[in-house]
Amino acid sequence: MRHLLLLLLLVGSSLGGTFPAFALADLTVKNTLLQAEYDLSRKKQIYLYLNLEKSQFDIRSSGMTVSTIAIKEMRTWGPLPEPGLHIIADKDRVPEREKIQIPPPEGEEAAAKPAAPVDPTAPPVVKKFEVHATEVTDMPTNYSLILEGGGVLVIKSLPAEDDGKKRTLAQRFEKPLWKVSRALHSALQHYKQEPFTELLLILSPEDAQRLYWALPVGSALLIPSGCATLIARHGLSFQAGPPCVSVSLFSNRR
Amino acid sequence: MTISLHQRSVASTKGPNRFRRETGGTKPPRRIRKLLLLGGLLLALFAALLFFGLVFYGSHLAKQQPAAKASALAGKPAPTDPDKLQKANATLTKRLAALAAKPDEPYIVVDSALNRVYWWQNGVVLREMIASCGTGNILEDPASGRKWVFETPRAERKIWMKKAAPVWMKPDWAFIEEGEEIPKDGSGRAEPGVMGDYAVAIGDGYYLHGTLYKRLLGRNVSHGCVRLGDDDIEFIFKTAKIGTRVILF
């Protein structure tokens, strides 16, 4: 039925000789995205593309996808981030990096510490080699990416349901709890006169860590106008920017 | 089954605190009534909060809509004519495709998170190699105020030089890290063998090279270069050409 309505709308508007407004908006957004991707590629920058059709992040360079990070689930509260180029302005839960201590000059060290007497009978001390590095496993699995302009991309990780591990009560009721908490948070933000929007992405813990690693502060993220895809896939009924307006008319499926 | 249920039901009504609504029996004790009242109040408060949250959310959405619409279409002025837009998009798609690698053009992808190097050609990975990328540690020299971050860069680069039997010219940070004095001239900086048998330069002092520490392959232990096993660096040295793309992320 929805498709029939859409078809009728398209046929009607084409007979009338006018270009559908939502199609024009879609073309404009596509143009903005292509321009942004072209500019990034010319600068030889690595960027991420939120591929809504395949439910994954594409790590891209020069228009080529070199790696992907799968998205298990996507939820939104408020309008989606506007389609186009977004810069990661900040991240939370930044892991502490190791700062290598420079030893003081020999003279100072000798003055500060008297040399310990060496026991000739003691066995030689074998130092165990330890890697002191910030690795992908040190990255957080639940975090927020703050976009320039105030949008928030919340990354949560949930273990796969079929991995044999028993899910905790909090994990079982995670979705209804999220909805209730967002409603309350919305009310609070309303009093503060601050708009509140959130795009929540659920990934596997390993993929969440890889995404954190791949998106340092200042990196570019391209968000397409995939509202139609989102609505079709997740049955969302919110309105979110021009390309969605027309589609959300038919998004009564739940 | 029926009998047992009946028995249980009879037994349960005999409890001292049982509230028998249908017979108009004794009221529940005061403590339970208080608890019920408190629970009802909490539930009502929660429902009210939820209701107001949803109402405010709706009004917030209504306010956001025109702003989102305006700003999404703002930015670079794009043509408003649909035909012009379609042509512009087709041109941009072609230009973007021209920047990408040709189907038979090989390129190297370095995944610094997984410490893997991939040799791509014709849209497939032909060789996967275990590497060691940057530690991400920070070295600060309080004496000079200089700072180094030992990270593998995230960018697209090209191979611009290939070296067999490379000699590592020890940079300043290596002396500072080891607590040694930085030599004023080039003497004492050359260290042959540290970079393995081959090295390929990708700019700004970064290399893909061999290593003495093969057991640490797969871990982030380098100062930003990409260390590889002997066979893998030999393969890259012999197969890659000057100008081969190296994509690091």
Question: What's the short story on this structure?
Answer:
With 254 residues, chain A is of the alpha+beta class. Helix content of chain A is 35%, strand content 21%. A 9-stranded mixed beta sheet of chain A has the order 3-2-1-10-5-7-8-9-4.
Report on this structure.
Chain A is of the alpha+beta class and 254 residues long. Chain A has a single domain, classed as L,D-transpeptidase catalytic domain-like (Beta Barrel), CATH 2.40.440.10. Chain A has helices at 2-15, 21-42, 106-112, 169-172, 174-191, 205-214, 227-234, 242-248; strands at 47-51, 56-61, 64-70, 73-77, 84-91, 99-100, 143-147, 152-157, 198-203, 220-223. A nine-stranded mixed β-sheet of chain A has the order 3-2-1-10-5-7-8-9-4. The longest helix of chain A is centred in the N-terminal third of the chain and has 22 residues, at 21-42. By secondary structure, chain B is α+β, with helices and mostly antiparallel strands. Chain B has a domain at 107-248: L,D-transpeptidase catalytic domain-like (Beta Barrel). Chain B has five helices and 13 strands. In chain B, a hairpin with a 4-residue loop joins strand 1 and strand 2 (116-121). The relative contact order of chain B is 0.12. Strand 6 of chain A pairs parallel with strand 4 of chain B, so a sheet runs across the interface.
